[in-house]
Every structure is written in C-alpha cells, then in structure tokens.
C-alpha cells in the first residue's frame, strides 16, 4: 500500500475503484509528467448518493461532502494511469463544477470539499490553483463534478 493510501486509511477512507466512463472518454490520461482526469462525479458503488441543484434539493454541506467523494474518484483515476499515488509531485489544478440553484453563490465553499481532502491526504503536494464554477446542470443531475491535474515525479 502506498503512503498516500495509508494516509487515506488513517482518515477512515479507502480509494474506490475507477468510475467507468459514461461516454466516449478515458477517466484519466497521462501526457509527459502530467495526469489530467476527466470530470469525476460523486459516484459511490456506481450510484449518485444525491441528485439535484445545490441551494435547492441539495444543501451546501451535502455538496461539500460530495466534492470530497469526487476527489477520491479523481485520485483513483490518477492511480489508474500513474500506477502509484506516491508518484504525485503536486496537484497543479482543480476545476469544480456545481449545479446551482439560480440564486446560489457558494460554489467556492462547496469545492473546498475537494481542496481540503487533497490537502489532508497529500499535505503541501495537495496545494493547487483552482476554479469553482456554477452551472445549470451536470450529467445524471449530479450536484458536483470535479477534475484535477497532477504533476508526477518521473520514474
């Protein structure tokens, strides 16, 4: 087990299986020393635990927890191409999408769920640039979707 996965375990978390693509794409691709993930939904065992818009059917607190799940799914996607999460030199960028009620403006606080998990698990390597964007709707009526880009230590 990698040090990153040991850290996850110490937090009571396990790395899930890679979420299968919903369309014509790969969960993650590597280009040089960078891994780019596709947008990761908060799938748990093949299902979305909650659907709807944040600020309407979904509370900001629920959405923040869903963003943590997205981060775990993104790390699983990274591992699927990098082979070992200990190869992560740093998280470079996080882009978070929040399906928002028309008057909801708390997207940054929702995506903090992803940012905070990456910091807990990776320490300084988890510090990143970020965008948090409100959108009208996401695939499968998911409340949150997150993609990450990481730099790897070369083998």
Provide the descriptors you would attach to this structure in a database record.
single chain, alpha+beta, 5-stranded mixed β-sheet, 23% strand
* SS elements, strand count: 5
Gyration radius (Cα, Å) is 15 Å
Structural category is alpha+beta
Note the overall shape: globular
Please tally the helical runs, counting DSSP H or I stretches of 4 or more residues. 3
Low-confidence stretches: none
Could you state the order of secondary-structure elements as H and E?
A: HEEHEHEE
Biggest sheet: strand arrangement: 1-2-5-3-4
Largest sheet: 5 strands, mixed
Mean pLDDT: 97
The end-to-end distance, rounded to whole angstroms, is 18 Å
**Helical percentage:** 25-40%
Proportion of strand residues = 15-25%
């Amino acid at each position: 087990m990698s040090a990153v996965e040991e850290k996850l375990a110490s937090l009571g978390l396990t790395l899930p299986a890679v979420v299968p693509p919903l369309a014509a794409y790969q969960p993650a691709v590597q280009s040089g020393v960078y891994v780019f993930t596709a947008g990761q939904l908060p799938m748990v065992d093949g299902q979305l635990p909650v659907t709807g818009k944040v600020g309407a059917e979904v509370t900001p607190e629920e959405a923040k927890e869903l963003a943590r799940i997205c981060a775990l799914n993104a790390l699983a996607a990274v591992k699927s191409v990098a082979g070992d999460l200990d190869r992560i030199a740093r998280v470079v960028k996080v882009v978070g999408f929040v399906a928002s009620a028309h008057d909801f403006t708390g997207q940054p606080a929702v995506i903090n769920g992803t940012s905070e998990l990456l910091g807990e698990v990776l320490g300084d390597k988890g510090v990143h640039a970020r965008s948090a964007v409100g959108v009208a709707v996401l695939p499968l009526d998911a409340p949150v979707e997150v993609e990450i880009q990481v730099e790897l230590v070369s083998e």
